[in-house]
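Notes from the 1:1 (GR / supervisor)

We went over the backlog. Supervisor wanted to see one worked example end to end before approving the batch request, so GR pasted a single chain during the call. The sequence is below; no edits were made to it. Supervisor asked that the structure be written out right there so they could see what the output format looks like.
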Amino acid sequence: IVTHSTTKYMDGHATQVGGCIVDSGNFDWDAHADKFPGLTTPDESYHGLTYTKAFGKMAYYVHGLKTLPQFRALDLTVRTENEVFHEKAFLFLVVNSSVVASFKNAAVQASVQDGVMDLLIMKQCNMKDLMVVTTELLMGKDISKRKEVVYRQAASFEVECTESLTSDIDGEIGPELPLKIETVPKTFEIFY
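Structure output shown during the call:
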């Protein structure tokens, strides 16, 4: 088993924190059962299934996959200067760059010179579609036109959520929602 920090690989600006665990399939989970009871003892939520007995070397992966259905969508209301819409979403980002967290083409139309920001919403969808969109994003493909994604450009976004939610601004804890983000054109005078 090898562990890696993916934080610098993903971005380098502390906007995400991540890790990667690589299991070569050769680790003897049962020999260390006291340290890994989630894999080596019966899981009553799955009819007493013991992952190491049922899946052998694949136990770790199968156990990890079971957490995917625990993703839950947030009820969002988004207001721009032109529209108001509601969406059940797994994730939303307001950005001003086509590269987001080292993902090229995440916001394909984004430009720091156009006076608008870009909103990406990953809509609630089934896990298969979520994995397809994630894979395409990792490959640098344009996901903005996919049915699982909402992509909007506006000078102002106000995002509300039906539950308490704290924002993350470039890796730092931001204000709680509702959150209003707007452009302020020609605020800085740049000369060289």
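Supervisor's comment: The mean pLDDT is 82.
Batch request approved.
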